Amino acid sequence: MRFLREFVAQRMKTTEVSISEETNGMLWQRGISKPPRHIRVRVVKDKEGRVIVFPGEGKSRTSGTPASS
Q: In whole angstroms, what is the distance from residue 69 CA to residue 65 CA?
């Protein structure tokens, strides 16, 4: 959580970063001991300078089900 918040704040040049409930769920899906290594997010900055982090679209590595061969 802290890493994502710091990364977004640095890239978007702001200190007010909010993480949506969907993104929070993706991060905590496997618990504290095994967070996802990669996630895709969409970051939106409003007129007041607040930044909100949403789950990204497209391929997601945190689908929850392993690919069958």
A: 12
Pairwise CA distance, residues 53 & 8, whole Å: 8
pTM for the predicted model, two decimal places:
0.73
- Domain 2-55 CATH assignment equals 1.10.357.10: no
For 15-51, letters b (16+ CB in 10 Å) and e give eebebeeebeebbeeeeeeebeeebebeeeeeeeeeb
pLDDT tens-place string over residues 5-63: 999 999 999 999 999 999 999 999 999 999 999 999 999 999 998 999 999 987 655 55
Please compute, for residue 57, the number of CA atoms within 13 A of its CA located in the half-sphere on the CB side: 0
Domain boundaries, the chain: 2-55
